[in-house]
Amino acid sequence: MSQTALVLVGATAFVGLMVLLGRAAASKTSADAESYFLANRGLRRFVLFAAIFGTNMTAFVMLGLPGVAYHGGISIWLMLAGPLLFVMPLSFYFGYRCWLVARKYGYVTPVEFYRERFQSDGLAVLMFLGFVGWTIPYILTGVIGGGRALENFTGGSIPYWAGGLAVTIVVAYYTWAGGMKGTAWTNTAQTLLFMAFLLLAVVLIPTASGGTGRIIETLQREQPQLLTRSWDGPFSLGATISQLILFSFIIFAFPFVWIRMISARSSKDLRASGIAYPVALVVTWVPAILLGLWGASLVPGLIGAEADSVIFLLTAQLLPDWVAAFGLVALLAIVMSSMDAQVLTLSNMLSRDIVGRYQRGSTPGSQVRWARVFVVVLLALTYAVSLLDMPGIFDVAQFAFTGFAVFYPLLIAGIFWRRATKWGAMASLVVGQTIAITGYLGWYPVIAGLQPVFWGVTIGTATLIVVSLLTPRQDTAAERFHAVWDEARGRRSPAVSRAPATAR
């Protein structure tokens, strides 16, 4: 059987599995908001971990990271530092506090949560617009990655437009049908698939090419700069500090991760996910970066975004056809595991925070119906945009990450600082977003290598503190949330009723 035939068989089998899981989840999902949006707040250990981890492992990991390592070498390693250091404490403290309050009061989206914390519709609208605006580029990375992969793996037999369309349709079906449960179940299978492929590839490729020692010798002889930590250009001290800020807290700035986090069955499940996440990150990112670095030795001469496909060029040239087919399945898995969560979250916020908030007579059942319409519409629009000329995966993802990072100050202050006010939160978001966007447009110079994310987060934080201190306190709103945390902290065994809260 030819490689193209194997690829098509593998892709068809994978799509069939996703459809079956979507149908199974749909049969256990009712038409109420708690069930469709949060899987009845019942996600357990491994499924919860896979739902959170798989959502964050986008095409950025299998395409963007190897591409950057191909051109930049070992300088990319410090990107791992932020997530490794901060994911666990954020799960244990920030995530736990959000879970407690959301479960007690029945909050479903981060927009709803922070609207009530700051008692501000204005802030809610700003958050909604920001989350939507930055999530769409992130969804794009999935459509682009899937379309390019199917085109490359089949030698053009499946053109880019058809590959992107196929990925979009499959994600639309199981997200539309199964809601949170559908995406969580498919994320579990997807996470296992792409992690297995990366581990397999990082073992087989050196074996097929003469060993790791030979690869390193070739790099030392022909591209020694890739084996030395550079402090210039995109890897300067200022850029490194910016990357550390960008990746340290980004996981919990994603609205699609926030919603999965509050879907945990218990605090123990949430904390177990926080412990497993850094381990899984190493198991996934390290092979992706190594494969990109080895590709510079084994497949030299790739220019720009061509390096995004280096893992799959390596498997196609060095390994049996079945491994290449497995690689495509893994890429489709990592693409879909993020797209589904992102689209479900946007549809959730559109139906809950817009239709549910401002349409008279809205009910949880009607919100679910609206959400299903939004799933289809959002994916159709995203697919249409993906047909335009797009930059590299890493560039698109980093642009979106910067926008999400600017939410850090208000997200964290709303949880930990009683004195934070709605005026401070709104000012922080407006100032931070303005700085981030204008920085990417080149409206101000790069100083000491510090990227827009550095200025957006630091100035946004200062703005929140100053404006909050200059505006009236919101003690009643703050106390409603802090009382829940204080009560839990004062108990020997913190507990909150496990019965799903009534949707607001």
Automatic annotation (TrEMBL):
Keyword Membrane: yes
The entry's keywords: Cell membrane, Ion transport, Membrane, Sodium, Sodium transport, Symport, Transmembrane, Transmembrane helix, Transport
UniProt entry tagged with the keyword Transport: yes
Cell location: Cell membrane
Record-annotated membrane-spanning stretches: 6-26, 46-68, 74-96, 123-146, 158-179, 191-216, 236-258, 279-303, 370-390, 396-417, 429-447, 453-471
PROSITE patterns: NA_SOLUT_SYMP_3
Recorded catalytic activity of this chain's protein: L-proline(in) + Na(+)(in) = L-proline(out) + Na(+)(out)
Mode of membrane association: Multi-pass membrane protein
Pfam families referenced in this protein's UniProt entry, alphabetically: SSF
Family: Belongs to the sodium:solute symporter (SSF) (TC 2.A.21) family.
Descriptive protein name: Sodium:solute symporter family protein
Species per Swiss-Prot/TrEMBL record: Haloechinothrix salitolerans
